[in-house]
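Protocol step 6 of 9: fold each sequence in the batch and record its structure tokens directly after the sequence line. For illustration, a two-sequence batch is reproduced in full.

Sequence one:
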Amino acid sequence: MLSLIGRRSGAAISLPVRYEQHAGTLIVVSRPSRQWWRNLHENTPVRLTLRGRARYGHATVTRAGQVVVVTIRLDAEQPGLPPDRGRLWWRWTKAVTLGEIAGFAAPVVVAAQLGGPEWTLLGIGPLLRGVAIVMAGAVEGTILGLAQAYVLRAALPAIPTRAWVRATAAGAVIAWGVGVLPIVLGERILRWPPAVLVLLGLILLGSMGLLQARVLRGRAGGRAGGRVGGRGSGRVSAPWRWVVASAGSWLIALGAFALVTTPLWQEGQPGWLIVAIGVLGGAVMAATVAALTGAAFVHLLPPSFQTERPMMTSLRRKRP
């Protein structure tokens, strides 16, 4: 069976075909009256399921007398992500890295500017400073959510940008709310039971991924979310895995941030230097979390996923 997506209608088309294989080339012969081949352009990128294995190639259509010959040149098999997923991972990594760098600059600047002794006035300085940092964290979450949504539109167009951005911003607010507790409470937080501290750590790492997974589950798994990349059908595989992947990615990214900034931040440094060190650490953190969450995201996409407009086919040898 040969399955393809209509170039204009976007509808799935399936029809029985016979093919011959010569090394890395497949030959499919059809009558001109059968219109399916018109969905192919010159050197069209295609995805095939050949004897149960996913393959990629390029199709060319030629007329030979009373028949139409479709020649599909198979690409060499390569380990790792298929081309579409590899491109999506790179797009995600670039966009999320830039978005997180820009967003993280907000709480870094606020924390540096509000670190002076004047904020200890009347003993309410730490609380006000914590609130200001959390508000800056909302800005970070909004920018990060917009960067992620920019890439999501290519993979899961049914995901509403507003819902994703709200979930990301809310997750950032919760995470920063936990993160500023040492600023607000000081050494008193060290007297809390270890179980409570562990729970707070889990909330800090998992809040954003949990809220985002709710959007994935509620929107991408339904009927509208069945259309992936504008073509084909499928759903996000086990959205709860995104929670684990996101939390693990942020844990590693925050560790990278600490490795960069801890040796560089010193007492009495000017504000501009504090900000510069924070942005440097934020860039390392951003690149780390972008690469890790991108790898997790592309593996959660359904097998029918594609990022580009060109049609993708599924080809199987007809059983006798």
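Sequence two, same batch, same settings:
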Amino acid sequence: MKSDRTPVFLSAFVYPGAGQFLQRRWIAGLLYSLCFTACFVLFLSSVIRPIFQTLSAALSWAESTNADATFTPVPLFRILVTFVVALALYISNIADAARAARRAQTPPGLPL
């Protein structure tokens, strides 16, 4: 018999949704995986794009000493929102895997 903590550890340390896949809850695992991946990609694009634009502007300014190079500010609000949404998905994923593992270990008719 599998440990009841394995799905929780998979969801926490491998990838969100992995624990649900182990519990054979395919739809929940797919939803958590896709939503977390989308938030993670948005977060990375919010951080990496301004860094590369600023680096490009700095290099073009250094080459030509042109003061017209514009530096892109980092969109802090977008970064914070995507980080908070991804964190909420991550925490709810772990809680869902733990709740389902507890439910699987509890005999029918007993309260959780």
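Proceed to step 7 once all outputs are recorded. Observation for sequence two: The mean pLDDT is 84.
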